């Protein structure tokens, strides 16, 4: 056999091509000439998965920018309803003026006019917003708002490319799964609504570092991501349970300390010098009323009864604690230790499902985690279809409620259906991930013999603490394959 063929065979075994494992991917590949041939998997050529996925992600991001053209040209400035009917709304140009960036106010330090008083975003996101304002050229206020959005879009495009590259490299043998992220329609549609991509990029980079066994780097990046958005800190919960099951407390401790250190390094200066401005994000999150996209909104609209924000906060916290306990129990009782990406997806999805607000760009939090947790095109696209319908639903609902007597758009009952589709789509994907955990033989990532490609030190680690049926199964395997097994915490035979 020629050497080139040997190289090809080796690469075929090391890289899992989705067009040979996924019927939807294979069918979709017909649009570009059919499933990839042997040269597509050669690692030495100019065309590599990282380059392809990054370029596709940038291309889809650009299409998302094109979708915002009606607003960029006139709808942001001509009237509120136009930006809803064209589904091109973005917080970015509005907050340029509304949060003092147009007046060169310093976030967290300078008080704003109106009810908000201070910028209601975490410190690292505020720094991102301020940096964009420094790069925005002068001119009329409308021109500056346009340029501020454009500058932010350029910076967020870099974040999108970082996400694509990190997801591509996290699962070494499945780099093409990152096309799920690059081609996700909801990703392109929501990327420039707000600044969430900064936290998503840092979280994706953290997942990559953990997959390489770099606990300190993972912790630093998770801490920075939490300084940009609150949700990344949730990943430390399931990671603790997995490290508990595998007995990897040292690595978890390093990650936890690094996360706390990097978060403090970013927050402490603002916390000390501008405490009122710094805490605005946290007080705003607590005081915020029931808002768009949540099942709480459906309840209040259907019953016609309002709920006190304190009660909603307590109920939402209770539901989140119950979901977290369920995920922990699942991790400790599953017949095989779940993959880190699976539990990361479940914990963030639980937060989204129980929260009192769901902005359409929150889907960005889940897209990379979904691609790593369950890289199946059919189920991913079903979920994405639900999210796209919700994206359209919220703007049509706002068009209906802000359109005066015309009432052009989606009435309340239609918007409630859009919320239900979003909730059901997310629950559907969660159910499939849970099924994969309970039936690991159905987990597509593990069909090639992999254990936990995104698990870092957990990949291939032996369990030291399990519960329920998993404990019984583990003891049976230990006795039949490895001989008598010393239980975790027990004294070895013959020890003094």
TrEMBL record:
> Its domain of life?
Bacteria
- Name the major location: membrane
**Which keywords belong to this entry?**
Cell membrane, Membrane, Transferase, Transmembrane, Transmembrane helix
**Membrane topology note:** Multi-pass membrane protein
Chain ranges passing through the membrane? 147-167, 179-210, 216-242, 254-275, 311-334, 340-359, 380-398, 418-438
Localisation per UniProt entry:
Cell membrane
What this protein is called in its record is: Glycosyltransferase 87 family protein
Source species of the chain: Streptomyces hebeiensis
């Amino acid at each position: 056999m020629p050497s080139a063929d040997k190289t090809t065979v080796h690469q075929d075994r090391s890289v899992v091509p989705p067009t040979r494992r996924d019927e939807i991917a294979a069918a979709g590949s017909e649009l570009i000439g059919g499933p990839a041939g042997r040269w597509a998997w050669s690692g030495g050529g100019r065309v590599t998965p990282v380059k392809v996925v990054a370029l596709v992600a940038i291309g889809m991001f650009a299409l998302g920018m094109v979708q915002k053209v009606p607003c960029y040209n006139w709808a942001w400035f001509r009237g509120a309803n136009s930006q809803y009917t064209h589904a091109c709304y973005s917080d970015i140009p509005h907050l340029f003026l509304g949060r003092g960036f147009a007046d060169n106010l310093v976030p967290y330090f300078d008080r704003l006019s109106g009810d908000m008083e201070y910028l209601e975003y975490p410190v690292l996101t505020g720094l991102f917003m301020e940096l964009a304002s420094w790069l925005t050229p002068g001119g009329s206020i409308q021109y500056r708002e346009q340029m501020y959005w454009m500058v932010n879009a350029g910076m967020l495009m870099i974040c999108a490319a970082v996400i694509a590259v990190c997801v591509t490299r996290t699962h070494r043998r499945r780099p093409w799964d990152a096309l799920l992220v690059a081609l996700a329609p909801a990703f392109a549609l929501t990327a420039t609504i707000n600044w969430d991509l900064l936290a998503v990029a840092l979280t994706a980079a953290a997942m990559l570092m953990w997959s390489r066994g770099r606990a300190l780097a993972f912790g630093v990046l998770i801490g920075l991501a939490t300084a940009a958005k609150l949700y990344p800190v949730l990943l430390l919960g399931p990671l603790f349970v997995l490290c508990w099951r595998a007995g990897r407390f040292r690595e978890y401790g390093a990650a936890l300390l690094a996360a706390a250190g990097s978060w403090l390094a970013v927050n402490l200066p603002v916390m000390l010098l501008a405490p009122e401005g710094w805490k605005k994000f946290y007080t705003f999150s607590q005081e915020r009323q029931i808002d768009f996209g949540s099942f709480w909104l459906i309840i209040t609209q259907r019953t016609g009864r309002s709920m006190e924000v304190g009660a909603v906060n307590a109920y939402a916290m209770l539901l989140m604690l119950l979901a977290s306990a369920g995920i922990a129990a699942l991790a400790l009782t599953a017949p095989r230790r779940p993959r880190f990406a699976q539990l990361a997806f479940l914990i963030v999805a639980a937060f989204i499902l129980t929260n009192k607000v769901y902005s359409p760009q929150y889907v960005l939090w889940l897209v990379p985690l979904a691609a790593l947790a369950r890289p199946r095109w059919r189920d991913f696209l079903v979920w994405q279809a639900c999210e796209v319908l919700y994206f359209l639903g919220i703007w049509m609902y706002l068009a209906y409620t802000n359109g005066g007597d015309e009432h052009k758009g989606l009435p309340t009952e239609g918007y409630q259906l859009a919320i239900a589709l979003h909730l059901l789509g997310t629950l559907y994907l969660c159910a499939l991930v849970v099924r994969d955990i309970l039936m690991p033989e159905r987990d597509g990532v593990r069909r090639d013999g992999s254990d936990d490609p995104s698990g870092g030190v957990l990949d291939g680690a032996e369990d030291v603490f399990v519960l329920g049926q998993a404990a019984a199964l583990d003891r049976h395997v230990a006795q039949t394959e490895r001989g008598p097994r010393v239980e975790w915490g027990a004294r070895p035979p013959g020890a003094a």
